[in-house]
Task: inverse folding
């Protein structure tokens, strides 16, 4: 697999609409699930190895949805890299939907499409990636999400101007006291 390389954050603008690639598979082992439970305090029985999870709705322990989402950053690193980026900041996520649980010991991988990229103020390029995270052997993805990121640095294009504020005025006669 080849990592796609962009010369600078501004170069992302020219790739809008393109599929950037697919990551390698990442195994989500039970020890990773247990560690995530310890860090977050989410010890729900569906994530724990043992008879309760075996008899539960998924036939065994499953990874936390937010654990699988947190694995997205290293999967994106497997797909593309932006040179001359002095900082990469996670801005947020939109339209996150968990559609299939990831069994403990299962494998996931991500496919990313560059939905938008635009120059912003202070040398940032704002990027939206549409991501589908597959579960090996499953027809439906683990999740779909739009990821918003800010890249700083490199040669910049002029920022997209913010729209002018619109003032609304009440129609009709004004009352006087």
Result:
């Amino acid at each position: 697999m080849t990592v796609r390389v962009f010369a600078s954050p501004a170069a992302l603008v020219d790739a809008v609409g393109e599929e950037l690639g697919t990551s390698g598979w990442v195994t989500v082992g039970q020890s990773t699930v247990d560690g995530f439970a310890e860090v977050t305090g989410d010890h729900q029985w569906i994530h724990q190895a043992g008879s309760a999870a075996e008899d539960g709705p998924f036939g065994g322990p499953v990874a936390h949805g937010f654990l699988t989402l947190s694995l997205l950053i290293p999967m994106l690193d497997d797909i593309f890299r932006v040179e001359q980026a002095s900082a990469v900041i996670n801005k947020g996520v939109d339209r996150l939907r968990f559609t299939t649980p990831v069994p403990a010991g299962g494998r996931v991988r991500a496919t990313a499409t560059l939905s938008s990229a635009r120059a912003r103020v202070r040398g940032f390029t704002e990027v939206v990636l549409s991501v589908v995270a597959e579960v090996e052997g499953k027809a439906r993805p683990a999740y779909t999400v739009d990821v918003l990121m800010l890249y700083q640095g490199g040669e910049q294009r002029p920022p997209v101007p913010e729209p002018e504020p619109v003032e609304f005025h009440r129609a009709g006669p004004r009352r006087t006291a």
Notes: The first strand starts at residue 4 and ends at 6. The mean pLDDT is 92. The beta strands are 4-6, 19-22, 26-28, 80-82, 87-98, 106-119, 124-135, 143-152. The CA atoms of residues 25 and 109 lie 5 Å apart.
